[in-house]
């Protein structure tokens, strides 16, 4: 007699019902969502002004306290900016990896994730960005963006070393991966790379960036991904040697 397939719901543990774990949104959170939806629907750009508070109160039909809490929620995420004093008002912000990374570090800290895990995530995510940049169909944009990195004697190549990775993210042609994966890289840059002496790495970094730029300009996605993985692993191993005790520490919320 053939054995019956096991029903994942039939076991000693009840399956998790994710719907039951979701809490009801507060009024301020609902208003925050509506504000963002309206920003997108109206195609507002970073720096564009939102209506005055009195107008927003009428538009969203909420109390002043709920509206202000909604605006604070969005300000913390960097999605709006509130300017005090002369010319005061609320302006549209910009979705940035640095803003997302702050929320991400809070979750990683609560999760107990270590810097070793963070660095491994960085090693695995950067090659994805490099491969996608190499496959970008707008070859002219790729050449224009990466040509300055081909000359390793050019001051730009050293000065804009960290900017190189942002350029690749922009060339990846995928806003989801660009934002999410660059938020991981942002945490690494802010909490890891800036704690080490960079001078001895500059020559190696500039060389790697030049070779990566060549591969991406040539449209070789696999080579770009492999070069990026080697490039990032070199930096990770340098950090492990420089600060071995920190590898096992929990990622800090900043």
What can be said about this structure in brief?
The protein is mainly α.
Number of helices: 12
> Sheet with the most strands?
2 strands, antiparallel
Low-pLDDT windows of residues: 1-16
Strand order of the largest sheet: 1-2
Number of strands: 2
CATH architectural arrangement of the largest domain: Up-down Bundle
Q: What string gives the helices and strands in order?
A: HHHHEEHHHHHHHH
Give the overall pLDDT as a whole number.
Answer: 86
Rg of Cα set: 23 Å
Helix content: 55-70%
Instruction: Indicate the structural class.
Output: mainly alpha
Net shape:
globular
Taken together, the total number of domains comes to: 2
CATH superfamily of the largest domain: GntR ligand-binding domain-like
CATH fold title of the largest domain: Four Helix Bundle (Hemerythrin (Met), subunit A)
Task: Detail the topology: elements first, then pairings.
Blueprint: H1 18-21, H2 27-41, H3 53-60, H4 64-76, E1 80-83, E2 89-92, H5 97-111, H6 115-134, H7 139-146, H8 155-159, H9 163-171, H10 175-191, H11 202-217, H12 221-242
Antiparallel strand pairs: 1-2
Helix pairs in contact: 2-4, 5-10, 6-9, 6-10, 6-11, 6-12, 7-11, 9-10, 11-12
Can you give keywords for this protein?
two-stranded antiparallel sheet, mainly alpha, 60% helix, Four Helix Bundle (Hemerythrin (Met), subunit A), Arc Repressor Mutant, subunit A, globular, 254 residues, 2 domains
Molecular structure report:
This protein is mainly α. The protein folds into two domains: 18-92, Arc Repressor Mutant, subunit A (Orthogonal Bundle), CATH 1.10.10; 98-248, Four Helix Bundle (Hemerythrin (Met), subunit A), CATH 1.20.120. The protein is 60% helix and 3% strand. A two-stranded antiparallel sheet has the order 1-2. The chain starts with 17 loop residues before the first helix and ends in a 12-residue tail after the last helix.
């Amino acid at each position: 007699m053939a054995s019956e397939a096991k029903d994942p719901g039939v076991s000693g543990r009840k399956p998790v019902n994710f719907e039951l774990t979701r809490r009801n949104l507060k009024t301020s959170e609902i208003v925050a969502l509506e504000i963002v939806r309206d920003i997108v629907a109206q195609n507002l750009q970073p720096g564009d002004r939102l209506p005055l508070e009195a107008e927003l109160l009428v538009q969203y039909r909420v109390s002043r306290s709920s509206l202000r809490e909604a605006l604070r929620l969005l300000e913390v995420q960097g999605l709006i900016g509130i300017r005090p004093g002369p010319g005061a008002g609320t302006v549209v912000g910009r979705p940035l990896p640095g803003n997302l990374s702050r929320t991400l570090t809070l979750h990683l800290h609560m999760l107990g994730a270590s810097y070793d895990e963070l660095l491994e995530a960085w090693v695995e995510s950067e090659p994805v960005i490099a491969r996608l940049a190499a496959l970008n169909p707008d070859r002219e944009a790729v050449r224009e963006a990466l040509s300055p990195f081909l000359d390793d004697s050019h001051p730009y190549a050293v000065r804009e070393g960290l900017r190189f990775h942002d350029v690749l993210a922009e060339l990846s042609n995928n806003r989801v991966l660009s934002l999410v994966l660059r938020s991981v890289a942002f945490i690494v840059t802010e909490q890891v790379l800036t704690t080490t002496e960079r001078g001895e790495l500059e020559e190696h970094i500039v060389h790697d960036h030049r070779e990566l730029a060549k591969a991406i300009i040539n449209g070789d996605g696999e080579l770009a991904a492999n070069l990026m993985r080697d490039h990032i692993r070199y930096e990770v191993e340098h950090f492990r040697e420089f600060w071995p005790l920190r590898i096992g520490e929990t990622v800090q919320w900043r």
